Amino acid sequence: MSTENLRLAVIIGSVREGRFGPTAASWFAAEARQRTDLDVDVIDLADEPLPHVLSAAPAPETVQTLETLTPRLAAADAFVVVTPEYNHSFPASLKNAIDWHMKQWQAKPVGFVSYGGFAGGLRAVEHLRQVFAELHAVTVRDTVSFHNVWELFGKDGLPKDATGCNAAAKTMLDQLAWWGTALREAREKHPYQS
Predict the structure, then answer these.
(1) What span, in angstroms and rounded, lies between the C-alpha atoms of 70 and 63?
(2) 1: in domain
(3) Domain range holding 181?
(4) Phi and psi based region of residue 12 (left: phi greater than 0; alpha: psi -120 to 50; beta: remaining)
(5) Which pTM was predicted?
(6) 183 belongs to a structural domain
(7) What is the CATH number of the domain that holds 49?
(8) What is the pLDDT of residues 155-165, one digit of tens each?
(9) What is the pLDDT of residues 29-85, one digit of tens each?
(10) Residue 193 resides in a domain
(11) 107: left (phi over 0), alpha (psi -120 to 50) or beta
(12) Phi and psi at residue 42, to the nearest 5°
């Protein structure tokens, strides 16, 4: 049984100009880094120029492009996806990153930080739950959701009233830590086969 900290990858799913994702991810990563049982890696998909055409046998230049993102996802024991809601779902950039990787998600927990207008990105989360189930990942029940997000954060990039969102982050991180530990131990004893 491993005694190392769990490796948590926080993924910024939007690459849209003027996006709010880095602000939400920065706040969440700071909350996660307060824990002594997690090592946090923030992955910004805007920094990962993934090809739009999927291939089972990618060209050498595509393989080279994937060489920065793939090992980081593989090393993670748990994930938090930071996503907006675009047209009642999640961004294409996020789906592209998910689809380029299969085994990296398997038998690992996934949590969500969502944001948007009235729905707070929750419709994007519901779609993502179905996608991750197909990839043999386990999504945790509780999420962090910011409704009408533009009114909730100050110019300093922090929530104006952090009480509710900090409590939600703690609950989700507790669930991720439990699932992350249990699934890591299971993978060590018996590698996952889909």
Answers:
(1) 10
(2) no
(3) 6-188
(4) beta
(5) 0.95
(6) yes
(7) 3.40.50.360
(8) 999 999 999 99
(9) 999 999 999 999 999 999 998 888 888 888 888 888 889 999 999 999 999 999 999
(10) no
(11) left
(12) -90, 125
